[in-house]
Amino acid sequence: MLLLAPMEGLLDATLRDVLTRTGGIDRCVSEFIRVTHTLLPERAFVRVVPELLNGGCTRAGVPVRPQLLGSDPVCLAENAARLAGLNPPGIDLNFGCPAKTVNQSRGGAVLLDEPELVGRIVAAVRRAVPAHVPVSAKMRLGYRDGSVAEACAQAIAEGGADELVVHARTKADGYRPPAYWERIADLRALLPATLPVIANGEIWSVADAVRCQAESGCTSLMVGRGMVSDPGLALAIRGRGGVPWTSIEPLLTVFWERVSARVERRHRAGRLKQWLNLLRRRYPEAQAAFDELRLVNDPAVVDAWLLRGAGGTAPTTEPIRALPAEMGQPW
Predict the structure, then answer these.
(1) CATH, range 2-237
(2) Which of 15, 30, 169, 217 is the most exposed place for a label (fewest CB within 10 A)?
(3) Which among 28, 97, 212, 218 is annotated as catalytic?
(4) How many other CB atoms are there within 10 angstroms of residue 145's CB atom?
(5) SS3 for 13?
(6) 135, 93 in Cβ contact below 8 A?
Protein backbone atom coordinates (compact mmCIF):
# COMPACT_ATOMS: atom_id res chain seq x y z
CA MET A 1 0.00 0.00 0.00
CA LEU A 2 1.24 3.50 -0.86
CA LEU A 3 -0.05 6.55 1.00
CA LEU A 4 0.32 10.22 0.15
CA ALA A 5 1.60 12.14 3.17
CA PRO A 6 0.05 15.19 4.80
CA MET A 7 2.18 18.30 4.27
CA GLU A 8 0.99 21.53 5.83
CA GLY A 9 1.28 24.49 3.47
CA LEU A 10 1.99 22.35 0.43
CA LEU A 11 0.04 19.14 -0.06
CA ASP A 12 -3.53 20.40 0.18
CA ALA A 13 -6.71 19.37 -1.65
CA THR A 14 -5.51 21.05 -4.84
CA LEU A 15 -2.27 19.09 -5.04
CA ARG A 16 -3.95 15.89 -3.82
CA ASP A 17 -6.36 16.21 -6.73
CA VAL A 18 -3.52 16.59 -9.23
CA LEU A 19 -1.13 13.97 -7.83
CA THR A 20 -3.74 11.25 -7.44
CA ARG A 21 -4.60 11.62 -11.12
CA THR A 22 -1.21 10.16 -12.00
CA GLY A 23 -2.02 6.84 -10.31
CA GLY A 24 -0.32 4.55 -7.82
CA ILE A 25 -1.58 6.13 -4.59
CA ASP A 26 -3.99 4.06 -2.47
CA ARG A 27 -4.92 6.68 0.12
CA CYS A 28 -4.16 10.25 1.18
CA VAL A 29 -3.98 11.89 4.60
CA SER A 30 -4.99 15.53 4.80
CA GLU A 31 -3.13 18.45 6.32
CA PHE A 32 -3.93 18.76 10.00
CA ILE A 33 -7.14 20.27 11.32
CA ARG A 34 -6.21 22.07 14.53
CA VAL A 35 -8.44 21.28 17.51
CA THR A 36 -8.06 23.46 20.60
CA HIS A 37 -10.95 24.03 23.01
CA THR A 38 -13.83 24.25 20.54
CA LEU A 39 -16.21 21.87 18.86
CA LEU A 40 -15.62 22.81 15.24
CA PRO A 41 -18.50 23.26 12.79
CA GLU A 42 -18.68 20.82 9.88
CA ARG A 43 -17.55 23.53 7.48
CA ALA A 44 -14.18 23.68 9.28
CA PHE A 45 -13.52 20.06 8.35
CA VAL A 46 -14.73 20.55 4.80
CA ARG A 47 -12.56 23.63 4.35
CA VAL A 48 -9.43 21.50 4.83
CA VAL A 49 -10.85 18.31 3.33
CA PRO A 50 -13.34 19.32 0.62
CA GLU A 51 -13.18 15.72 -0.59
CA LEU A 52 -15.68 15.01 2.21
CA LEU A 53 -18.29 16.34 -0.22
CA ASN A 54 -17.15 13.84 -2.81
CA GLY A 55 -17.59 10.65 -0.82
CA GLY A 56 -14.30 11.28 0.99
CA CYS A 57 -12.30 10.83 -2.22
CA THR A 58 -10.32 12.91 -4.68
CA ARG A 59 -11.67 13.28 -8.19
CA ALA A 60 -9.55 10.27 -9.15
CA GLY A 61 -11.39 8.20 -6.52
CA VAL A 62 -8.56 8.00 -3.96
CA PRO A 63 -9.78 8.11 -0.33
CA VAL A 64 -8.62 10.99 1.87
CA ARG A 65 -8.37 10.47 5.61
CA PRO A 66 -8.76 13.77 7.55
CA GLN A 67 -6.11 14.42 10.22
CA LEU A 68 -6.75 16.03 13.60
CA LEU A 69 -4.13 17.80 15.72
CA GLY A 70 -4.46 18.76 19.35
CA SER A 71 -3.68 17.77 22.94
CA ASP A 72 -7.03 17.60 24.72
CA PRO A 73 -8.41 14.04 24.58
CA VAL A 74 -11.99 15.10 25.34
CA CYS A 75 -12.05 17.91 22.78
CA LEU A 76 -10.40 15.74 20.14
CA ALA A 77 -12.92 12.98 20.79
CA GLU A 78 -15.86 15.37 20.44
CA ASN A 79 -14.51 16.74 17.19
CA ALA A 80 -13.74 13.27 15.89
CA ALA A 81 -17.33 12.25 16.56
CA ARG A 82 -18.61 15.23 14.59
CA LEU A 83 -16.14 14.54 11.79
CA ALA A 84 -17.27 10.91 11.69
CA GLY A 85 -20.76 12.18 10.85
CA LEU A 86 -19.36 13.35 7.50
CA ASN A 87 -18.47 9.73 6.64
CA PRO A 88 -14.71 10.10 6.18
CA PRO A 89 -12.67 7.04 5.12
CA GLY A 90 -11.08 7.17 8.57
CA ILE A 91 -9.60 9.68 11.01
CA ASP A 92 -5.88 10.26 11.53
CA LEU A 93 -4.15 11.78 14.56
CA ASN A 94 -1.08 13.98 14.30
CA PHE A 95 1.86 13.25 16.63
CA GLY A 96 4.50 14.24 14.15
CA CYS A 97 4.28 17.89 13.10
CA PRO A 98 7.65 19.55 13.86
CA ALA A 99 6.52 23.16 13.35
CA LYS A 100 7.63 25.41 16.21
CA THR A 101 4.33 27.29 16.45
CA VAL A 102 2.39 24.02 16.58
CA ASN A 103 4.67 22.48 19.20
CA GLN A 104 4.50 25.61 21.36
CA SER A 105 0.73 25.13 21.42
CA ARG A 106 1.14 21.52 22.61
CA GLY A 107 0.39 19.97 19.27
CA GLY A 108 2.20 17.55 16.99
CA ALA A 109 5.60 16.06 17.82
CA VAL A 110 5.94 17.73 21.23
CA LEU A 111 3.32 15.31 22.57
CA LEU A 112 5.78 12.47 22.07
CA ASP A 113 7.37 13.55 25.35
CA GLU A 114 4.11 12.42 26.99
CA PRO A 115 3.41 8.82 25.87
CA GLU A 116 0.62 8.44 28.40
CA LEU A 117 -1.22 11.45 26.96
CA VAL A 118 -0.69 10.13 23.43
CA GLY A 119 -2.35 6.89 24.46
CA ARG A 120 -5.27 8.69 26.11
CA ILE A 121 -5.88 10.75 22.98
CA VAL A 122 -5.96 7.68 20.75
CA ALA A 123 -8.23 5.79 23.17
CA ALA A 124 -10.64 8.74 23.52
CA VAL A 125 -10.96 9.19 19.76
CA ARG A 126 -11.32 5.45 19.19
CA ARG A 127 -14.20 5.31 21.70
CA ALA A 128 -15.86 8.38 20.21
CA VAL A 129 -16.23 7.22 16.63
CA PRO A 130 -18.13 4.25 15.19
CA ALA A 131 -16.24 0.98 15.00
CA HIS A 132 -16.34 0.99 11.19
CA VAL A 133 -14.37 4.26 11.04
CA PRO A 134 -10.62 3.46 11.17
CA VAL A 135 -8.49 5.53 13.53
CA SER A 136 -4.83 5.88 12.59
CA ALA A 137 -1.91 7.86 13.96
CA LYS A 138 1.26 9.36 12.55
CA MET A 139 4.27 9.86 14.80
CA ARG A 140 7.95 10.73 14.60
CA LEU A 141 10.61 8.84 16.53
CA GLY A 142 10.51 11.46 19.26
CA TYR A 143 10.79 15.14 20.04
CA ARG A 144 14.37 15.78 21.20
CA ASP A 145 15.59 12.23 20.71
CA GLY A 146 14.28 8.74 20.04
CA SER A 147 14.32 7.44 23.61
CA VAL A 148 10.52 7.36 23.97
CA ALA A 149 9.68 6.04 20.50
CA GLU A 150 8.86 2.56 21.80
CA ALA A 151 6.69 3.92 24.60
CA CYS A 152 4.76 6.17 22.22
CA ALA A 153 4.22 3.44 19.63
CA GLN A 154 2.99 1.05 22.32
CA ALA A 155 0.67 3.73 23.72
CA ILE A 156 -0.82 4.27 20.27
CA ALA A 157 -1.33 0.53 19.83
CA GLU A 158 -2.85 0.10 23.29
CA GLY A 159 -5.13 3.06 22.65
CA GLY A 160 -6.78 1.06 19.89
CA ALA A 161 -5.31 2.58 16.72
CA ASP A 162 -6.02 0.63 13.56
CA GLU A 163 -2.83 1.76 11.84
CA LEU A 164 0.44 3.54 12.64
CA VAL A 165 2.62 5.62 10.32
CA VAL A 166 6.14 6.29 11.56
CA HIS A 167 8.22 9.14 10.16
CA ALA A 168 11.69 7.82 10.86
CA ARG A 169 13.16 11.02 12.31
CA THR A 170 12.74 13.03 15.48
CA LYS A 171 11.44 16.57 15.62
CA ALA A 172 15.02 17.69 16.27
CA ASP A 173 16.10 15.94 13.05
CA GLY A 174 13.56 17.97 11.09
CA TYR A 175 13.76 16.92 7.45
CA ARG A 176 17.51 16.46 7.31
CA PRO A 177 18.70 13.15 5.89
CA PRO A 178 19.03 10.40 6.76
CA ALA A 179 15.79 8.82 7.90
CA TYR A 180 16.38 6.05 10.43
CA TRP A 181 14.25 3.36 8.85
CA GLU A 182 15.83 0.63 10.97
CA ARG A 183 14.22 2.21 14.05
CA ILE A 184 10.82 1.44 12.57
CA ALA A 185 11.80 -2.24 12.62
CA ASP A 186 12.60 -1.86 16.33
CA LEU A 187 9.10 -0.52 16.96
CA ARG A 188 7.43 -3.19 14.87
CA ALA A 189 9.09 -5.88 16.97
CA LEU A 190 7.27 -4.59 20.07
CA LEU A 191 3.85 -4.03 18.50
CA PRO A 192 1.06 -6.51 17.83
CA ALA A 193 1.50 -8.23 14.49
CA THR A 194 -2.09 -7.25 13.71
CA LEU A 195 -1.26 -3.51 13.75
CA PRO A 196 -0.22 -2.30 10.28
CA VAL A 197 2.88 -0.11 10.44
CA ILE A 198 3.72 2.18 7.52
CA ALA A 199 7.18 3.66 6.95
CA ASN A 200 7.68 7.31 6.04
CA GLY A 201 10.61 9.65 5.51
CA GLU A 202 13.24 10.38 2.86
CA ILE A 203 11.70 8.26 0.09
CA TRP A 204 12.68 10.07 -3.11
CA SER A 205 13.19 7.18 -5.52
CA VAL A 206 12.46 3.53 -6.20
CA ALA A 207 15.86 2.67 -4.71
CA ASP A 208 14.95 4.55 -1.53
CA ALA A 209 11.63 2.70 -1.35
CA VAL A 210 13.31 -0.67 -1.69
CA ARG A 211 15.88 0.15 1.01
CA CYS A 212 13.19 1.55 3.30
CA GLN A 213 11.15 -1.63 2.99
CA ALA A 214 14.20 -3.78 3.68
CA GLU A 215 15.40 -1.78 6.69
CA SER A 216 12.01 -1.07 8.26
CA GLY A 217 10.39 -4.41 7.49
CA CYS A 218 7.31 -2.51 6.25
CA THR A 219 5.70 -3.37 2.95
CA SER A 220 3.54 -0.24 3.03
CA LEU A 221 5.05 3.22 2.57
CA MET A 222 3.98 6.84 2.87
CA VAL A 223 5.54 9.27 0.38
CA GLY A 224 5.49 13.06 0.61
CA ARG A 225 8.05 15.41 -0.91
CA GLY A 226 9.27 12.60 -3.17
CA MET A 227 5.84 12.34 -4.77
CA VAL A 228 5.45 16.12 -5.07
CA SER A 229 8.84 16.28 -6.82
CA ASP A 230 8.14 13.23 -8.98
CA PRO A 231 4.40 12.61 -9.51
CA GLY A 232 5.25 9.28 -11.13
CA LEU A 233 7.05 7.95 -8.07
CA ALA A 234 4.19 5.80 -6.80
CA LEU A 235 3.79 4.18 -10.21
CA ALA A 236 7.54 3.63 -10.44
CA ILE A 237 7.62 1.98 -7.01
CA ARG A 238 4.93 -0.37 -8.26
CA GLY A 239 7.10 -1.20 -11.27
CA ARG A 240 4.81 0.50 -13.76
CA GLY A 241 7.23 3.15 -15.00
CA GLY A 242 7.26 6.82 -14.18
CA VAL A 243 5.48 9.87 -15.58
CA PRO A 244 7.20 11.88 -18.36
CA TRP A 245 7.20 15.66 -18.44
CA THR A 246 4.70 15.61 -21.31
CA SER A 247 2.20 14.13 -18.85
CA ILE A 248 3.09 16.67 -16.16
CA GLU A 249 2.42 19.67 -18.40
CA PRO A 250 -1.38 19.23 -18.52
CA LEU A 251 -1.38 18.79 -14.75
CA LEU A 252 0.18 22.22 -14.35
CA THR A 253 -2.88 23.70 -16.02
CA VAL A 254 -5.26 21.67 -13.85
CA PHE A 255 -3.29 22.72 -10.78
CA TRP A 256 -3.44 26.37 -11.79
CA GLU A 257 -7.20 26.20 -12.35
CA ARG A 258 -7.73 24.71 -8.91
CA VAL A 259 -5.41 27.26 -7.31
CA SER A 260 -7.20 30.10 -9.10
CA ALA A 261 -10.54 28.89 -7.73
CA ARG A 262 -9.30 28.41 -4.17
CA VAL A 263 -6.42 30.78 -3.39
CA GLU A 264 -6.30 34.56 -3.00
CA ARG A 265 -5.11 36.24 -6.19
CA ARG A 266 -1.91 37.60 -4.65
CA HIS A 267 -0.79 34.13 -3.56
CA ARG A 268 -1.62 32.14 -6.70
CA ALA A 269 1.64 32.54 -8.61
CA GLY A 270 3.56 31.61 -5.48
CA ARG A 271 1.72 28.31 -5.25
CA LEU A 272 2.64 27.35 -8.82
CA LYS A 273 6.27 28.36 -8.28
CA GLN A 274 6.34 26.36 -5.05
CA TRP A 275 5.40 23.20 -6.95
CA LEU A 276 7.75 23.93 -9.86
CA ASN A 277 10.55 24.46 -7.37
CA LEU A 278 10.12 20.86 -6.18
CA LEU A 279 9.47 19.43 -9.65
CA ARG A 280 12.82 20.72 -10.88
CA ARG A 281 14.51 18.13 -8.66
CA ARG A 282 13.25 15.50 -11.11
CA TYR A 283 12.52 17.34 -14.38
CA PRO A 284 14.92 19.70 -16.22
CA GLU A 285 11.87 21.18 -17.96
CA ALA A 286 10.56 22.30 -14.57
CA GLN A 287 13.79 24.20 -14.02
CA ALA A 288 13.22 26.12 -17.27
CA ALA A 289 9.61 26.85 -16.28
CA PHE A 290 10.65 27.96 -12.81
CA ASP A 291 13.29 30.29 -14.25
CA GLU A 292 10.73 31.82 -16.58
CA LEU A 293 8.18 32.44 -13.82
CA ARG A 294 10.53 33.11 -10.92
CA LEU A 295 9.81 36.86 -10.76
CA VAL A 296 6.19 36.63 -11.90
CA ASN A 297 3.47 37.42 -9.37
CA ASP A 298 0.64 38.53 -11.66
CA PRO A 299 -1.86 35.68 -12.26
CA ALA A 300 -2.67 37.16 -15.67
CA VAL A 301 0.92 36.57 -16.77
CA VAL A 302 0.67 32.95 -15.63
CA ASP A 303 -2.60 32.59 -17.54
CA ALA A 304 -0.87 33.84 -20.68
CA TRP A 305 2.11 31.55 -20.10
CA LEU A 306 -0.18 28.54 -19.91
CA LEU A 307 -2.25 29.63 -22.89
CA ARG A 308 0.75 29.95 -25.14
CA GLY A 309 1.69 26.41 -24.21
CA ALA A 310 3.52 25.50 -21.04
CA GLY A 311 4.35 22.24 -22.71
CA GLY A 312 1.94 22.59 -25.57
CA THR A 313 -1.28 22.19 -23.61
CA ALA A 314 -4.24 24.50 -23.28
CA PRO A 315 -6.26 24.88 -20.10
CA THR A 316 -8.75 22.08 -19.57
CA THR A 317 -12.38 22.83 -20.28
CA GLU A 318 -13.50 20.74 -17.30
CA PRO A 319 -15.74 22.97 -15.16
CA ILE A 320 -14.56 23.69 -11.63
CA ARG A 321 -17.06 22.34 -9.18
CA ALA A 322 -18.51 24.95 -6.84
CA LEU A 323 -19.37 24.04 -3.25
CA PRO A 324 -22.36 25.36 -1.35
CA ALA A 325 -21.50 28.81 -0.08
CA GLU A 326 -21.68 27.72 3.55
CA MET A 327 -19.11 24.98 3.00
CA GLY A 328 -16.23 27.13 1.79
CA GLN A 329 -14.51 27.79 -1.50
CA PRO A 330 -14.53 25.71 -4.67
CA TRP A 331 -12.02 22.92 -4.71
Answers:
(1) 3.20.20.70
(2) 217
(3) 97
(4) 12
(5) helix
(6) yes
